[in-house]
Amino acid sequence: MAVTYNTICLTQTAATVAALMDFPAPAAAAEPIRVVLDAARERFGGAPVERMLLYNPDAIAMWLFQKYTHLFAGAMLHSSLTLPMLSVMPSVTPVCFASMYTGVMPEVHGIRAYEKPVLKCETLFDAALAAGRRVAIVSTEGDSISKIFLERDLAYFILSTPEECNAKAAELMERDACDLLVLYNRNYDSTMHRHGPESEQALRELASNANTFASFAQLAREAWRGKRAAMAFLPDHGCHEIDDGLGSHGLEMPEDMNIVHFYGFL
Description:
Elements: E1 8-9, H1 13-21, H2 34-44, E2 51-57, H3 62-67, H4 73-76, E3 81-86, H5 93-102, H6 106-109, H7 124-130, E4 135-140, E5 155-159, H8 162-174, E6 180-185, H9 187-195, H10 200-223, E7 229-233, E8 240-241, E9 247-248, H11 254-257, E10 258-265
Parallel strand pairs: 1-3, 2-6, 2-7, 4-5, 4-6
Antiparallel strand pairs: 3-10, 7-10, 8-9
Helix pairs in contact: 8-10, 9-10
């Protein structure tokens, strides 16, 4: 059987979010995902999204969704769309999130290995700030999202644990402190590297990521009541098992490249 790769590239994410919130996308970004825009139009009648949460769990592969669908219930129940997405090469975190939020391939944004320099090219966040949107990034210390998008006039909250990050993001939502909120969770990725992608410990964290998304959907319905709001579950790359049952990623193979994204409109 031929190897199959998904066809919607995560580079299309930046322009999709910009179009949903009605501000110009980064100039070089790939085109938006039309079905997401169509779904938002059906929900909001063509009016722009006013508040959006971009939830970034790490290393959630599409094969995990196919094999352990029940563990994704929290994401599915609070989503309007489930999309098969394609990551970029090398399929490692800084490269992938750089492509997701610049809208361009690695050879354009310049991060082409597991390195975490500050991006100098235009990002979704630059475009949002230029349009007057309030942007916040919440991430654990040392991880890619806490580093590659620095040096911008947005709110950064760099904390020690995913639990602290989730609490801070909830606080920001409750205070209506930002229009575009980015939340990164590393817990599945860090666990699958140590114990394997299908270990009991890793699958527990996978379910936790889906349930975290559900919790934020419930909170958003209260905190953003009266606002046109959207949420997206946006992992960066997948994963596969290596020797000794450990987990890894970074290769050009379906297990690492095929991922799943969810979009919900509240």
